[in-house]
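Researcher: We are triaging several targets before committing to wet-lab work. For this one, the compound of interest is nicotinamide-adenine-dinucleotide. I'm pasting the protein sequence and the ligand SMILES. What I need is the predicted three-dimensional arrangement of the protein with the ligand bound, expressed as structure tokens, so it can go straight into our comparison scripts without reformatting.
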Amino acid sequence: MSTKESLIRKLQDKTARIGILGMGYVGMPLAVVFAEAGFNVTGIDPDQRKVDTFNKGVSYIQDVPTETVVRLRKAGKLNMTADFAALKDMDAVSICVPTPLRQTGDPDMSFILSATEQLAKYVHAGMVVVLESTTYPGTTRELTWPMLTEKSGLKIGEDIFICFSPERVDPGRKDWTTLNTPKVMGGITRACAEVATAWYSRAIKTVVPVSSAEAAEMAKLLENTFRMINIGLVNELAIMCERLGVDVWEVIDAAATKPFGFMKFTPGPGLGGHCIPIDPLYLSWKMKELNYNAKFIDLASEINTNMPRYVVARVLDAMNDRGKVLKGSKVLVLGAAYKPDIDDVRESPALDVIALLRKKGADVSYHDPHIAHIHHEKEGWKMDSVEDVIPAVKESDAVVIVTNHKFYDYNAILAEAKFIFDSRNALGKLGAESEKVVRL
Ligand SMILES: NC(=O)c1ccc[n+]([C@@H]2O[C@H](COP(=O)([O-])OP(=O)(O)OC[C@H]3O[C@@H](n4cnc5c(N)ncnc54)[C@H](O)[C@@H]3O)[C@@H](O)[C@H]2O)c1
């Protein structure tokens, strides 16, 4: 039996041992899906605090209930370590490490490099490796493949199988999860995709093989660039509608009644999270190397990046209209997470909105039911969420809704507030009809 056949057999009968490199928002739910399917899974993460929390039987990822961690740990299906040597016993490894941007806006590949360097120490014949981290097209072929085979001498598609499979998880979402969201799989060779498809399809409902790792890398970038550009478009529409004196929310709702050819996107205070503001810049960076300027990405990025500034300018104007100055006023920001009902503050526009309000001299506080503390690393300040919303609303001269969490009782907030700037249309009709409210 060839190496490939025996590996496929192990994957099919679930005796293959699975390693997940990087147990964050992506890695942990993926590890759980494999463990629930009956594989023995080991999560490997250098963050000792995460390992300790897991080993106490506590989940540190909102989408993974603590009961699941406890059950899978007890059953011996899922364990976690900070020791990379665990990789030597693995047959199949998914890499789910961060891919942020450097201060300069260029891709920060250091996590992929360090994870792959660690894996290269333990790589062996009969191993399948799937890179899941979002990255520029060409990474798997130009970086992962050589790093894993140069020293080991393993032959691609015969001894070792390397693929790219983009992660599509949408934290906080209940209807589409890691388990039932189709998974695109592109290999360095056809045999690579065949092995990885045999593995993932034992746990994930739909696996969609494509002809190359590059096609899979690019598919992810298309998905997120599509979102980024459409968000940029509605953000600009909001700016245009304000100049025209037209209600942008009414316009969008009216357009969305078209049953075909239109997809609804809504404006907001700016982009956030680990994906939409960042991933398209991986593509534009790569294209610059090829002397091509990704114009749509640059334009949308410029509009989206400017939204926190636009929101603060609108707050300033609205207060001015009410005979108030922002300087010295008490401003309460509602919601710090980058989107509703999640506990992730990475790249959140709330941080920029708060920073800009502070620069204008406002006395700013924030409330978020999911985020107890925030830290603006560039500016070096920290803030704790106020405890109770309604007393804080009562005390404030202005409330700025940045994230429309379901947690909030918007009727009560409207009743108690002196003035609200609603950047998400969280108040809907109530906001449209109230003199106290200005909407984006
Ligand atoms: N969070 C999302 O919604 C989402 C969705 C789709 C795709 N992605 C992509 O998935 C990737 C992972 O994102 P995430 O949100 O899970 O990040 P995360 O920061 O939540 O988790 C990454 C984990 O990797 C660990 N890590 C760092 N260096 C490591 C190393 N050398 N070896 C092993 N582990 C290491 C970190 O300690 C952390 O626990 C990124 O490329 C991201 O763009 C994220």
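Researcher: Any quick observations?
Model: The chain has a mean pLDDT of 96.
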